[in-house]
Structure formats: C-alpha cells, structure tokens
Amino acid sequence: MDLKHSASGAVESTDTYIATSKSTDMITPKEKESKAAKAAAAPGEGYKVYARRWAVLILFVFYSASNAMQWIQYTIINNIITRYYGISDKWVDWTSMIYMILYIPLIFPGSWFLDKVGLRITALVGIVGTCLGAWIKVFSVDPSLFYVSFIGQAIVALAQVCILSLPARLAAVWFGPDQVSSATSVGVFGNQLGVAVGFVLPPMLVPNSDSLDTVGKDLQMMFYLVAGLTSILLVLMIFFFQDKPPTPPSAAQEASQRLEGMAEQQVSFLQSLKNLMTNRNFIFLLLSYGINVGVFYAISTLLNPVHTQRTASVQCLSDESAFLMVFQVVLKYYPGHEVDTGRIGLSIVLAGMLGSVVSGIVLDKTHKFKETTLAVYALSMVGMWIFTFTLDTGHIAVVYLTASLLGFFMTGYLPVGFEFGAELTFPEPEGTSSGLLNASAQTFGIVFTLFYSELFYSYGDVPANVAMAVMLIVGTLITAATGSDLRRQNAQVASASARGSV
C-alpha cells in the first residue's frame, strides 16, 4: 500500500501491483491489438487503483437504480393509474415501453457521446435527465394531466441511454484486472436494484383507494420522494463522480489511453463500429447474447395479473424487463395465487442480483471468459427446460425455486456478456461494445416476444417455453463456436513479460 495525494489535496489510499494474467488462452492479435500490447509494455513501476473508485462505483449504482426504479413506476400500479387518470391500459404500458422505443435508435448516438466526452459528462447528462423527468412528474398530479406525467417519463427514458453502456466502461477505467469483472457486475447490479425498488415501493406508497383525492395525495408523495432522492444524487454526482483516476489501473487501460492520445492511432466512431462488426467472434457473441437476453424478455412479458388481454404480451420490453417476472402462466396452474406471482417476481430479481455478482467474482478469480460464458449460458438453457416441465407439479414452492434458478443464471449472464465483449474487442471502447450488445438484446427481445406470444395464446405455455428452450440450445452452440481471443488479457500478458525481462 502507498499514499498518493488526490486532485483535491486529500491523502488517498491506493493499492500498487504489477499486472498479471491468469489466462492460458491462445491469443492471435491483429495489428491494432499488437500496437496496444506494445503500448502496454512500456516501462513503469506498477499500476495503482485508487480507493475513490468505490465511491464512483457506488454513486453509479444509485444513479442507475434511480432511473430503473422509474421505469416500472406506473405499470406496477396499473389499475390505480388507469382509474386516477381515466386512461386505458395501453397508455400505462407505454410508460414502460417508451424506455425501449427511445433506447434503440439512440444506442449509436449514445455510444458516440460516451466515447467523445467520457464517463463524467455522460453520467451527469443522465442524472440531470433523470432528475428533470422526476420533477416534471411532480406537477402531473391531476386527473387531466397524464400527458405531463408521460413527458416526464419520456425524459427519464431518454436519460437511460446515458446509463446502460456505462458499467463495463467504468469498470475498465477505474478497476484493476483482478476486479474489473466484479465491478462490471456491481454496475449491472444497480439496474436490478432499481427494478427491485420499483417493484416494491409504488404499491406501498400508493395503495388502492376508493377516493381519487387520496390517490392523488399518495401519487404526489411518491413523485416528491423520487424527485428529492434524484436531486440529492445529482448534487453528489456533480461533486464526487470523476471521469478517470490520475493514473491508469492496468496495462490494458494504459494502452487504451495511449492509443487515444496518439493522433495517428485515433479512429473515428464509424471506423470503431466497422472494426466491431467485422470481428467474427464478437458477431457470434452478439447473436448468442441477443438470444439469451431476448428469451428472458419474451418469458417476462406476462407481468401484471390484471393484464389478461393479448396486447399485454408486448408490455415492458426494456433492458430492465428481464429482471421482473410475474408469470401470468403461474396463475394457470395455481389459481388464486396472485400474491405468489408478485413474490416470485421479487425472488427472481434478488436471485438475478446475486447471480450478477457471483458471475463477476468468478471471472475475476479465474479469468476464464469463454469457459464462464459457456457454463452460464448452458445452465440458463438447462434452467429453462427445468422451469418448463415443473410448473404442473402442484407445489408452488417448486416454481419459486425453478424460476429463481432461471433468474440467477440468465441475469448472471449480463455482466459476463459485457466483459467477454470487452475482451474480444479491445482496444475498442467498452461503451460501444456494450451498446451493441444491448441493441442485440432489444432486437431479439421484440422478435421473441411476438413469437412467444403467438405460441402461448395459440398452443399453450409448454410449446411456447419449449421453443424458447430450443433457442437457448442454439445460443449455447453459438457460444461454443465463439473463439477465445482475449485481447485485453493479451495486453496484460505482454506487459508482464516485458517487465519480467527488464
């Protein structure tokens, strides 16, 4: 341990180490990656990780949670919202669907923005949008002002673009090679935390009441509470969320920063996209990642028990929807267990949060990205088969167990996919690869939801679930065919070799 003065003048604890790699994967670097490895092999005393990295990560977790919580703010109390504002279910559905509708076309501009201005400015733009949207909702508490509430929700949805691609980028910029995957998983954890809060908090703050005046007062309290919390986060982000540490935490990040600073090595955003889209292994990952998360989206769409009409099957298609599973299908086998469907949904959220963290820790301990990705994917597929054929056992506890198991592995796959993508595409920006992975998930989610819905209503839940399980088999095979070209690890290996020869 040593002490280093931060930019503010305070003495800050740092850890110093020589970067190493535990990977035994064979690497076949391209020309650009070779230059990155040479840059990483420059002489130095070691790499430092700063204690403030945890403050930056924790701030991001709460920032992400504040946005994700508002995604489900209306749909979870659908019957109350429709009665208070005098609107149809479809309009409430749109308060969650707007997240997806706005995210898909803004993925590329958002990735470009992150690449150009960095973490701090991107995060500040996001928290300002989240806070502004929350405050607009405060002024929408009147049965005739639903459009005001929807405008606020749309602004919060726009801010989501400045969140979803950040976890992998933040982890790479601030954390060392033995913590970067865990940091990514914690970043993803923030989004899930927000969904969990959004699942529990609105029904508590806005209980069903016969009096519209009472409902209005409760809505006002909820909107003020969310706006106040996001305002506090805005202040904290302005003062404490930093762009990057004074020195890079790893050889890979040092190489990336050096390439960014060398004019002859800089590439345009479009060129970076071209590099990614001509990377065979990354294309395979795009397909397998999209299939996995898309399947989870599809089986997560029959959410609120009051939504029995067919049109509800396209509800809540956003990145967060994968973490909220209140299965209408459960009511088919267990009539009268509406309370259990909500508890199953919460169980899956909590299991998914645990799965994300465990997956990140496993990656940091083993550095076996291909093997871990394949294992988690295969277990997701197995979990889907088990879930499909255990629904009719007559024991609701079995559904709790199998659904939570499915959530654990499918949600645990999210940070694994981000980190494997960062390894396969180094030194391209992590935000760009994450954005493309999210785009793939959204696209497959739409297609699979329509397909799943058609099968579900025409033939029943078993054929629909079997079809999704077959898709996961295809995804597992694609994952097995993906090469283990760990370019970021290659930079670490080159650095360690160069230092050992000095």
TrEMBL record:
Q: What is its main location?
A: membrane
| Topology of this chain in the membrane | Multi-pass membrane protein
Q: Which residues form the Major facilitator superfamily (MFS) profile domain?
A: 51-487
According to the record, the segments passing through the membrane are: 54-74, 94-114, 121-139, 145-168, 180-201, 221-241, 282-303, 344-362, 374-391, 397-416, 436-456, 462-481
Print the keywords alphabetically. Membrane, Transmembrane, Transmembrane helix
**GO MF, one annotated term:** heme binding
Q: What is this protein called?
A: Major facilitator superfamily (MFS) profile domain-containing protein
Please provide one cellular component term from the Gene Ontology annotations of this protein. Answer: membrane
Q: Which InterPro entries match?
A: FLVCR1-2_SLC49-like, MFS, MFS_dom, MFS_trans_sf
**Listed PROSITE patterns:** MFS (PS50850)
| Organism from which the protein derives | Drosophila rubida
Q: Which Gene3D superfamilies match?
A: MFS general substrate transporter like domains (1.20.1250.20)
Q: Which Pfam families match?
A: MFS_1
Q: Does the keyword Cytoplasm apply?
A: no
Entry's localization field: Membrane
Q: Which residues form the signal peptide?
A: none
| Superkingdom | Eukaryota
One of its GO biological process terms is: heme export
